[in-house]
Amino acid sequence: MQFLSVNTVSISVDFARAAVAKLPLERSVVEHHLNDCKIPPALLNEPQARVSLQQYAKLITQLMVASNDELLGHAYEPLPMGSVSILTHWMVGAETMGQAIHRFVRFYKIMGKGFDISVHSEGDLFFIEIGGEFHPRDSDVYVYEFVFFSIHRILCWLRRDIFPINHLYFPFPRPDHARDYRLMFYGAPVTCDYDRARIAFSSTLLSQPVVQTPEALKQMLANPFTNLLVLNFYGESWSSRVGNLVQGRLPQLPTLPELAELMDTPAYTLQRRLAEEGVSYLDIKNQVKRDAAIDLLVHTELSIEEISARLGFSETSPFTRTFKQWTGVPPSAYRKKQ
After folding, report:
1. pLDDT tens-digit profile of 191-224?
2. In terms of Cα–Cα distance, which of 247, 180, 182, 240 is closest to 13?
3. Please, what are the domains in the chain?
4. Taking the CB of residue 35, how many other CB atoms lie within 10 A of it?
5. Cβ atoms < 10 Å from Cβ of 301
6. pTM, entire model
């Protein structure tokens, strides 16, 4: 779901678990980086647990530097740090997005490592397809998610615009953390168990100009993976607008009729619009509270009792029970270090 600030939005711990799964680093080194990002190592074993985007971005950046591998051990050969920097320096000099995409594909063919990428046009769409030549099959999920995420965010950065993905196709069964694809891929439709990995865009994108500059690239590359992860995070969907309004009113959240009045929209219309996006107002309220709780546990020294009160719970025990329903662990688990 596309709302809230980078500090508070959370994603499944599965993304962090995949990031450390194949690292050629000593366990003590990995645990040091997890703890430095305020992710208790034991949290990786909890399937419902979540981490903030800020934690995840910091973690993968540190691990890439420590391993000198931008694919974190998921390819047959390391993809050295600086690869994205070289690639984007080449892409930002393109005149059109079609030329930039050609350079993206050409870059990895020249590299001979990282990704096996090709582009195909079909009617009003063009598809970027990824093969498995450079990574083992058990890394499919991480590699395809990471590549599709990177492709879309880099292209959006070049256009200075969040343009839609027409469709995503993954050649693996739908994972539990797929609920977060809506967030990572800006609500794009996703098909799993497809016969290949591909991402589809409108062919009109190819003729559009690249609008970013080398000066802007220097700023982006100061912290590239964080900057791409949180790229223009605010959306214009109904769920985004509701999420932003609700977040600013913690702990006293409005009822649906009160929210509809704030948004100058009939309550039944608001409810229908959210349903069309696959969410309910209750879903949004719970996500706002959950992600705010994680943020406060990770980034403040407030006691659990104080956090409970800030989120509108009358007592600590119902907050603890609810938090465990959300994440599979009690709030105290987010403050345990190895």
Report:
1. 999 999 999 999 999 999 999 999 999 999 998 8
2. 180
3. 80-229 (no CATH), 238-335 (1.10.10.60)
4. 13
5. 7
6. 0.83
